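Structure representation.

___
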Amino acid sequence: MLKELRVRDLALVAESRVRFGPGLNLLTGETGSGKSLIVDALSLTLGARGGADQVRHGAQRAVVEAVFESGATQLVLQRELGKRGAARIDGRPATPGQLRELAGGLVAIHGQHEHHALLDTDAQTELLDAYAGALEMRIAVGAAHSAWVAAANALRDLEQVRSRGQREQEYLRWQLQELRDADLKDGEEDALSAERAAMRHAARLAELGQQAVDALHEDGLARASAAVRSAADLDPRLADQAARLDALAEETADVAAEIRRYAEVLDSDPRRLETIEFRLATLETMKRKYGGTVEAAIEERGKLELQVGATADVAAAVSAAEAERERRRAELEAAAARLTKARGTASRRMEKAVAAELEGLRLEGARFEIALRPQAEIGPSGAEIAEMMFSANPGEPLAPLARVASGGELARVMLAIKTVGAAVDRLPTLVFDEVDAGIGGEAAIQVGLRLKALGSGHQVLVVTHLAQIASFADHHLVVEKAPGDDGRNVVTVRELGSDEERARELARMMSGGSTPKALARAHELIEEARG
């Protein structure tokens, strides 16, 4: 959930700190007050394109920061604009691309100039699968696809082995034997390097160890311990210090014993050192020839064992691999067919549900369909993609939703889809800008009802100029533009806390002022929205 948006020196915003709550958050204000600027600021933190021209006149840079919370976890996305832009995630440097990738699971923004998450066919397909309750089927298709690809790759590798001549097969066997003779083991190189270092300095290490033991055996600490113990017999207040000194003396004795044992086992045998040097040289040769690390050489040994083992009966191995590939292909096709069937059934249900919502949103005559378009090859997400199609007026042909005219019409289509899929939509925060363009009266009430319903399962942010929609707010934020200390206009945002404040704002939205009649109607709207 979006908890807070902090903006400094962005366009007309000198400094603003906007707090959002759960449910339906409404942003209102006079025309030109900067309502959409708040959405623009949020978009920047989500990786939208930004430039130095958005920095407030007279400032060096603009900073926008969005704080998200999920339970006890907090995530901070930050964006800076200026001569040199910057992005951060929880204070760590990032790129706008990384912000966009992260934002894909946090927020969907639906507005005239924003990137629409639902306009991507992959997102539409995933939404349909979620609506169909077929996400597990989709996962099964992905697993079956991976298994089929792995089987196909295994067959390809065996066929490559079969196509090689006898000379290359002999060379593979020679490589394998060399690696087997090397008898490589994980961790051996580090252990030998440490032992070699110790042996090269064995004399000095033994000398230093003996010096440490001699120093630790000096009886200064023991005499101190005995003295304080005797003092504690006379004054019990020193008992704690006596006990601590006893523990130190005991610990010192243990350390001295360990160092003595270490010095005793130090080995400076030149023959052992020679053996280590030879072994490390062997490991270095294997690293250089087979991948650069011991681990890579061990992995190469495993691959060669499979390839050389397969050459013993290549024809039988290829036949078995072909059978495995066909079996995996059949499993993939069966899993994809189940998903296709579920998508077909769900698409018809979703079409009817969205059409009903569009009618309630006063888009009479609009049509909505879902086209399932077969792909040339079955992929990890199935045999087809879902593309949502829309026509705003009778007689107009259906077109992909991504090509529908932007603005309020598109926003209402998005609202209808979101309302229908609310139970399965996993995005926690939904933003609607211009959702009320071109509507009013009963249609506005219907939009407000749906936004309120969405707010029961999501955090919803809406920019609106209609009092009918604003009356449904759980949190009503008003955007205002007024002269600042330097005489220039600045944008501020504040939350309306009381019904009286909200009524005055609704009255202004309806009639341009707080007349008694407008105030009375505003209070009616607030009560009707609650009922």
Remarks:
- The radius of gyration is 36 Å.
- Residues 314-360 form the longest helix (47 residues).
